[in-house]
Amino acid sequence: MIQRRTVLKTGAALTGTIGSAGLLVPAVASSAPAKAADLDPAAIAQFTQAMPVPKVLQPYSVSSTASYYRMTMKEADAQIVPGFTTRVRTFNGSFPGPLIKAVSNRRVVIQQTNQLGVPASVHLHGAHVPESSDGAPMDLVAAGGGTKTYTYPNSQPHANMWFHDHAHHYESETVYRGLTGFYLLTDPVEQRLPLPSGTYDVPIALSDAHFDDAGQLVYAMGDRLRTVLLTNGKAWPYFQVAARKYRLRLFNMSNMRFFTLKLSDGSVLQQIGSDGGLLEKPVEVTSVALSPGERADVVVDFSRYPAGTRLVLENTAPRRPDEPAEQIGKVLQFRIGAPAADSSSVPAALRTLPALGTATVNRSFELSMDETGATADSFINGKAYDMDRVDTEVEYGATEIWTVRNTNTRMPHNFHMHLVQFRVLERNGSPVTSGPESGLKDTVSLLPGETVKLQATFTGYEGTYVYHCHMFDHAAMGMMANFRVTRAAGAARR
What CATH number does the domain located at 361-493 have? Predict the structure, then answer.
């Protein structure tokens, strides 16, 4: 069995100060200190590589009710930095990961084979699935050829989902090294809208990295030196676009980094969706904030720029003093070409969200970790994760309000629930009735001292699932807990 103390011995204590965007800044030395042999990020040429678009994975078999896929988790080589070949961990050798396009109420069945040297557990982030296919932290696919079949019923509305490793104590390194993929679920509500589609609907994964002088990824928990920003697996790439509207689905797949994204000319973006699909109506914003695991769906109209314009997607999240703006402040360059035919539009109304319902249970959760540097302990309600302990018993079908608080004074966290999408009712006591957090969510940020109030209805499946901080190092250090959904929970309460 994986022992928690084993991983903590290999990682630095993760504690310290942050910028207001919540970027982790350890107060103790990282276990991967800067070396003269490390690749200098300032020497990496920016905007010289084209951003790849994720490849749509095709099923090997299709029935009237389901699509069947096979994936192999394995190592592969990728060119992330110009002039270097980097060893990465992948699904099917794809870096960035493959893209599955699914349809609500049509099953997707994936046989996963693990050819890596470490165990894995594949979690479809944002999915409403039975416990057996949730990718629980200890439901492992053995290294060196183990297999498991995951069945995704897709019995939920459209959503911007992604899949990644969730094996406890391994997920932080394995996801950092590339074991992620995209999963776009659509339904008739979304399909009938005249939004940009086809080649003008582009998933974009954001992450960060640290390289040695041979161009290989350096991994350590709490590493302060991940200052090379990656977009769809390339360091500071460019993306050639036509002068027309594009739908950009932004995924923060980093371990720890918070992004605040804006266009370099300060122009308006139309945010149309978040984690759980479309908002009720578009929101005009000048920036988009994403904590690890969160997604944002935006439309950018490049027709307002003349051909030949070069526009940068910037990251304005506060950075440490030792993080150069030339690195951390730039993400992706758009190169605007000639106009292209465009019949797409963004309607004033996008969808009707499900009714909230009446909550009958209120719960409170506190996220905390040692900020002194003495230990690497992280907790929910004062307890570190124990795979054998059920922390929260939920009655099947219940609607509950969860109040989640970050009790730390310097450390950011965020909060992700498996099984369900939730609604953010309040942030720091202020009602959330509109804006980017008003849609369906599964991950929400919590800067130091912040409190959010969430509402969810637990239906569809019984079983044991987890909730946790989606900053992978924090979860590995214990900031995770089990909840069990059963009909018996209600009977016991009565």
Answer: 2.60.40.420
User: How many whole angstroms separate alpha carbon 324 and alpha carbon 263?
Assistant: 19
Q: Give me the residue spans of the domains in the chain.
A: 4-28+45-191, 198-339, 361-493
Read off the tokens for 413: 């966290």
CB 239 within 8 A of CB 274: no
The two domains 198-339 and 361-493 share their CATH topology (first three levels equal):
yes
Residue pair 231/332 in contact by the 8 Å Cβ criterion: yes
Q: Is the pLDDT of residue 16 over 70?
A: no
Q: Left (φ > 0), alpha (ψ -120 to 50) or beta: where does 442 sit?
A: alpha
Q: May I ask the CATH architecture of the domain 198-339?
A: Sandwich (2.60)
Give the separation between CA 409 and CA 337, rounded to whole angstroms. Answer: 47
Q: Which residue has the tokens 């988009």?
A: 288
pTM of the model: 0.94
Pair of tokens at residue 451: 């409190």
The residues near 5 (Cβ < 8 Å, ≥ 6 apart) are none
pLDDT in tens, 198-253: 999 999 999 999 999 999 999 998 898 999 999 999 999 999 999 999 999 999 99
